[in-house]
Amino acid sequence: MPSLETLVLSNNHLNGTFPQFLLSNTSLRMKYLDLSGNAFSGPIPNSLPEMAPNLRYLDLSANGFSGSIPHSLSRLHKLWKLSVAMNNLTGGIPEELGMMSGLEELDLGSNPLGGSIPTSLGQLQRLQILNVSDAGLVSTLPAELGNLTGLQGMDLSRNQFIGSLPPSYARMKGIRQFSINKNYINGSIPPEILSNWTDIQAFDVANNMLHGNIPSQISNWTGLEYLILFGNNFTGSIPADMVGLPLLLTLEMSKNHLTGTIPLNICNVTFMGYLAISDNHLEGELPECLWKLKNLFLMDLSSNALSGEVPTSSDHYESSMRSLHLSNNNFSGSFPSVLKNLNKLVVLDLGYNKISGMIPSWIAENNPLLGVLRLRSNMFNGSIPWQLSQLSHLQLLDLAENNFTGPIPGSLGNLSSMQRGITDMSIFIDLYPGVESLSNPYYIDIVWKGREHTFLEIYQHVVGIDLSCNILSGEIPSELANLRSLQFLNVSRNYLTGGIPKDIGNLKFLESLDLSWNKLSGPIPPSTSNLMSLSKLNLSNNLLSGEIPRGNQLQTLDDPSIYSNNLGLCGFPLKVPCSNDSNPKITLEGVKEHHEDLETVWLYYSVTAGTVFGFWLWFGVLFFCSAWRFAFFSHIDAMQQKVMQNMKNI
Fold this sequence. Notes:
Number of strands: 43
CATH topology of the domain at 1-89: Leucine-rich repeat, LRR (right-handed beta-alpha superhelix)
Structural class: alpha/beta
Strand content: 15-25%
Shape: globular
Distance between the termini: 121 Å
CATH architecture of the domain at 1-89: Alpha-Beta Horseshoe
Helix content: 10-25%
Largest sheet: 21 strands, parallel
């Protein structure tokens, strides 16, 4: 094909080394070569410039090429795009690439290159796009890159750059996208950059060590759409002028040390879709006008010191809100009635506040898409409404550490999203709009196997119910055994009676089961041995009896504390043998002895605590009262002299 100018073989399943037919003859007319998105491996050939000397476009990205970037590529003098991203290339960035004066786009990202950015890249005067993200680079940022005055986009993220942002970068007056996410950059944002980058659209300096106040000059970036300052050491308050930017879509300032209140003019940013100021020290009340931001689909104000009632609104309006995080604050009052307007809500996290009252019955009708409902550690009371069972997308229900009373509704067994298999949970992917500049904007903190974990992309990873630490009574509904996609179930520390549902073994995906600290009685169902995914089990502190089931996954759970304080249990892993004639039963005398043992333990702790308290009270009096202290030590001296005198007489 001597006349071939363009060859595109991208996004197939081609493998092997670099295609030999391209190297067997000189292709003087070839200008465009795209082999991206395949499985080619081996080195990039050094002879490529001789075989296709007139290449203008070369894309070898998303393959398995290894070795170093050939220095010979610098001889492709007409090349305007070079992309070798997403390969296994090593050996650093060649200095010779700075000689490719025609380059407009250079993409070397997602390779384990190592080394530093050559200062020679500052000679590429026509360069518009530079991507060296996730390339294992370890160095300071070369000031020479400030010579790239035509640069429009620069991505330096996910490396190990140290030092500060060079003021020379202010000469990139036309830059629109800048990212240095996940490095070790310190210092403050240079004022020269703030003055000159008037065309900037996306500014991402997240996960670094920048400090100082957030500059108010950012308010001059009137075209700014994405401002991402997450995970730095910024202090002070949020500049009021900055949050009035007319085109701002994303404001991410979480995990800093910001103080003050939320500026009221934040509500003037009518296009904002993503607002996150979590893990700071804000305080004050939540502005009511935030609910009227029609395009806002995520609001994360968790882990601050916000207080008062969550403001309500009597107006009816359209809302795009999908994910709302207000946990770990000091909010009080009742369940926010403003949520009636959020009919697209998927994630609701109000955990760790002081909200009280009952869960309203309208929750299923007004929030039909709820997939995550987390009300953990509040002061909610009353019964658990049966209407929760109408939430057909619910996959996480966390009502732990409240004051809920009454029985667990058997209707929860009708939760259709918890009845489907794990592989069917992809329905939630369509409910979460993507944000390209942010990773995993949808997350939830969950007490998982006894420890709190942050789960990302929860629609793929977690399905469970946590009703622990309440005042629930009655039996565990047998209908819960229908929720075959459950991964964890925790109803511990309640007042539940009756037996463990006999079909508990239907929960094939269950990894964590905690029924401890209740008044459950009867045998452990044999079907428990069918829980093949189980890695954490706690049935302690109940009134269970009979032989512990054996087999399968249960054999690996050999910690006796799993079954402790159940008088009638026997068998492995307990050191209590079972009789051959019948399973042991709990008698009234046994229960009485069990309670007497507990009373003995409490008496022991009480006496110990009293002794310690008395000692420190006595010591405190001596420490703070000089007269008593003098008398005490005088008495000690007198006793010492008397003893010494007696010893002399002997």
